[in-house]
């Protein structure tokens, strides 16, 4: 006798077996459904009518056997009736209606083929492609005309700046390229930062003199720092470059400016040294007091080394500012400005020329994109037309089988009706029961549709190949147009030559 554990094991195994069987049935059902859907997609016409030709469904829908028994009991149709009437006529009419529905679907497909064929006008597309170079050429000429005035102005300004630059080099006997910093704003920013640094150092010296008290006013430190930095910087950036000038008068003026600047810096340093010396004695000292002290004892501050630290700070800041000012441009006066003006004019003209070149490239690229779009659209329409032709071919084959199957189904339904009728009637069999239905297969239209579609598809494919060749030729013309425009654009702008 099996134990409880064995029964539970058997039950679990049976449950797993049923579970896997259910999964297998579900997979098989899904596979059959997918196969049916794919078959319906490949042969849509046959899939629509396969169910309509089911004998069982047609018999149930028309109630063939029941109506046969009822008509037989009523002795209908009469024995001498030779034509199909009553239920037999309804069966034949129903089957012919199915045939007419199939023919209407064929006609609709034929209309779609005709409409799709008329929508594909490759000749007009080829004419449009041949017109693209002329259209592109006109766009190029209009674009150049729009840029002409501004380009002419920029070219003239570049020529003027170049002439001035060459004349400057020849006049001053310069054969080298001007040297100046790429980003002079950094030097200017450093000079501006040097002012508060110098003021801070002066304030620190003041604290060392006065101990814990802050005796030096902040505005005095900033004014002294600004004067000691900005004046040497301005002289170094301007007048001092005259020492390299070819003319003796310019060199003399430069050295004179340097001497005056040196006197100014030394005077400022001496004044500030005396001011610091007097500040340690009298916190309320004024400028008049400093000047009076200088007049009374000019060498009193010479013994105060701490005060002269402030003078040294001012002197070093002035020397550094003077050197930075000299390095902000080319050593020869005016040479850097002349070269920058020429380079700036040339750069503006080149940028405008590049903008014109980009505009011309965009015109040609737009034309090439239009060629690609048109040929691709034509190819897509031809492929769609080819799918319709393939559908018409499949419909023609399916319709031939459908007409034959429909005729067989109609005769089978009539036979079922007649058998049920004969089993219920007591009189002789009607003469109409010997009639068999023959459906005339109207496949000429579908065959003509298929032949026309196939021949038209071949013609469209040939025309599309010619269109592709035409598109390649147009692309080559556009590339040549673009290349010629880019290589000789300036002469075309100034001379007005045709492209």
Descriptive key words:
single chain, mainly alpha
Helix-strand category? mainly alpha
Give the beta-strand count. 0
Run of helices and strands = HHHHHHHHHHHHHH
Strand-residue fraction? under 5%
**What fraction, in percent, of the residue positions are helical?**
over 70%
How many H/I helices?
14
Tell me, rounded to a whole number, the average pLDDT: 79
Shape estimate: elongated
Question: Distance N terminus to C terminus?
Answer: 107 Å
Low-confidence stretches: 40-48, 492-499
Q: Any idea what the radius of gyration is?
A: 53 Å
Main β-sheet description: none
Concise overview:
The protein has 499 residues and is mainly α. The chain has helices at 4-42, 44-50, 55-62, 64-73, 86-119, 122-172, 184-210, 218-237, 248-281, 287-296, 305-327, 335-424, 444-487, 489-495.
């Amino acid at each position: 006798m099996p134990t409880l554990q064995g029964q539970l094991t058997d039950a679990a195994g049976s449950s797993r077996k049923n579970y896997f069987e259910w999964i297998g049935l579900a997979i098989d059902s899904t596979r059959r459904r997918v196969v049916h859907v794919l078959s319906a997609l490949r042969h849509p016409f046959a899939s629509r009518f396969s169910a309509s030709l089911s004998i069982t469904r047609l018999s149930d829908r028309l109630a063939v056997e029941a109506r046969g028994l009822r008509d037989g009991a009523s002795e209908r149709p009469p024995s001498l009736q030779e034509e199909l009437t009553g239920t037999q006529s309804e069966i034949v009419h129903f089957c012919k209606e199915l045939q007419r529905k199939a023919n209407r679907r064929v006609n609709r497909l034929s209309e779609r083929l005709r409409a799709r064929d008329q929508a594909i006008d490759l000749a007009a597309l080829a004419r449009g492609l041949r017109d693209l170079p002329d259209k592109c050429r006109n766009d190029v000429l209009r674009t150049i005309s729009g840029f002409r005035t501004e380009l002419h102005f920029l070219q003239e300004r570049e020529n003027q700046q170049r002439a001035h630059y060459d004349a400057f080099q020849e006049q001053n006997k310069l054969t080298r390229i001007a040297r100046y910093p790429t980003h002079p704003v950094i030097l200017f920013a450093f000079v501006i930062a040097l002012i508060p640094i110098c003021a801070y150092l002066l304030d620190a010296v003041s604290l060392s003199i006065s101990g814990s008290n802050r005796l030096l006013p902040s505005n005095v430190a900033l004014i002294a720092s600004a004067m000691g930095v900005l004046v040497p910087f301005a002289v170094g950036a301007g007048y001092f470059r005259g020492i390299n000038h070819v003319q003796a008068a310019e060199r003399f003026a430069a050295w004179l400016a340097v001497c005056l600047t040196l006197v100014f810096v030394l005077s400022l340093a001496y004044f500030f040294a005396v001011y610091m010396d007097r500040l340690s004695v009298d916190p309320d000292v004024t400028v008049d007091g400093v000047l009076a002290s200088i007049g009374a004892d000019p060498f009193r501050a010479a013994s105060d080394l701490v005060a002269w630290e402030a003078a040294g700070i001012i002197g070093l800041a002035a020397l550094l500012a003077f050197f930075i000012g000299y390095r902000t441009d080319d050593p020869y006066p005016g040479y850097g400005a002349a070269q920058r003006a020429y380079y700036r004019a040339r750069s503006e003209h080149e940028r405008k020329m590049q903008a014109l070149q980009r505009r011309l490239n965009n015109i040609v690229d737009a034309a090439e994109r239009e060629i690609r779009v048109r040929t691709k659209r034509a190819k897509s329409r031809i492929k769609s037309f080819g799918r319709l032709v393939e559908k018409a071919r499949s419909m023609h084959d399916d319709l031939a089988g459908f007409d034959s199957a429909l005729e067989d189904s109609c005769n089978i339904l009539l036979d079922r009706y007649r058998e049920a009728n004969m089993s219920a009637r007591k009189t002789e069999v009607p003469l109409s029961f010997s009639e068999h239905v023959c459906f005339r297969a109207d496949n000429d239209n579908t065959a003509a549709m298929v032949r026309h579609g196939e021949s038209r598809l071949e013609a469209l494919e040939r025309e599309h190949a010619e269109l592709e060749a035409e598109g390649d030729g147009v692309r080559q013309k556009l590339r040549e147009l673009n290349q010629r425009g880019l290589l000789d654009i300036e002469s075309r702008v100034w001379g007005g030559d045709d492209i």
